[in-house]
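Hi R.,

Here's the chain you asked about this morning:
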Amino acid sequence: MSETGFTLFFRLFNLAAGILYGACLSWFFGVFPEGQRRKTGIIVFSVYLFFWLFGGRFSTPAVLVILPAVSGILEMERRRVFLLTVFFYNVRVASGLAAESLYFSVQKLFPFTEEQAEAVYLHTAGSVAFLLLGHVLVLAVLLYFLKRQMQKLLPAVRGRELCYLLLIPSAGILFGHMTAVLLFEVQDGIYLELYERHPAFLALVPLLAALFYLGTYLTVAFWQGMARLRQEREVCFAGFQKAQALRERMEETERFYEEFRRMRHEIRGHLTNLCGLARRGNYGEIEEYIARIDESMGVLDFTIRTGNPVLDVVVNDRRRQAESLGADFRSEFQYPDSGGYDAFDMGIILGNLLQNALEACEKVEKGKRYISLMGRKRGSFFLAEVRNSAAGTVIFGADGLPATTKEGEASMHGIGLANVRREVEKYMGEMELKMENGEFSVAVLLQERRIKT
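And the predicted structure, written out as tokens:
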């Protein structure tokens, strides 16, 4: 091979390497469903190839910056784009170190002794081609196993999770670049290789590269395991909350039945007393006695009618608790007559909101305690709002819910609101919390669900 042919070969070699690496990155982006689109693959490939050819030493950081920056065009979440790109470079570095060690070993086993320039050019061209193909083969195999592992579960990438997911691959990339700098060195006009000066590194370098790859693989597996546990915990917690809500409804209903049983037990005595008064002709006392009976039976009345028997129990039970606290309880709640809302879900929402309101009123001085319940339907939406008097201040946390203070001023509102939010999300709704002028309010907007037929 002539010098001119050798120069042309290296230009084509650089282009071929960029094409092969870019194709591997584009294929690796298919780990996520949105990454399987043809447009995404073309953009990823083009960005990588451009900076491979024209980015020089800044090609790697440029791709790490540009691809996440164009995540909107890729129609992928930015964190996912950055995560995949870092994973790719980590695997590329690890596979490159392994291929370089293999290449050096082959050279030692089959030394080249020819001194003619044409033969040297040809041998060098064949060697680097062999190195490139070996690197791409190892890279493709490692990417395949990592991609297959990641496709088992695709959890959302959270901020803190992104940090520890990137820790090991980032260290692997830095290790690879540091090793690449040390691989070749010229001293006193003599060309030296790292493996010649330190033969032990021939095994240590690929071993460390393998450990970085394995660390990345296991980190992904651990991340997926944590995501599965989180999903299972959410399912279990939701089931627990359903059971807890059902238990509360049963306790509320049991209190009413207890009152009925008590009145049934006492009714015979009342009838006997009434008959005695009637025989003696004490009609005035009979009226007073009947009035007292009517007053005692008032606990069995639903003074608030919501339009749903389940919610009648919930709201009236909270009303009696409010009255026992000396709190004014007002209600303008009307349950929607459409079938797009589940009374059990609504019971969980109102039960938690009113319970929080009761606990807040306990902190307010008597005479200023009040609870207001409102609920009305507008089109395909239903708005429910609970307002109550509150003392102190409420500090909202990062999740938008009231955070507990040292003095415990806002803790009464933190309990149950997470459950309310979970129920609201089932209806693709929203929850808004406010604290103004000594009044705490929670408004939930629910969207009517279509009934499948």
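The two ends are 76 Å apart (CA to CA).

Let me know if you need anything else.
M.
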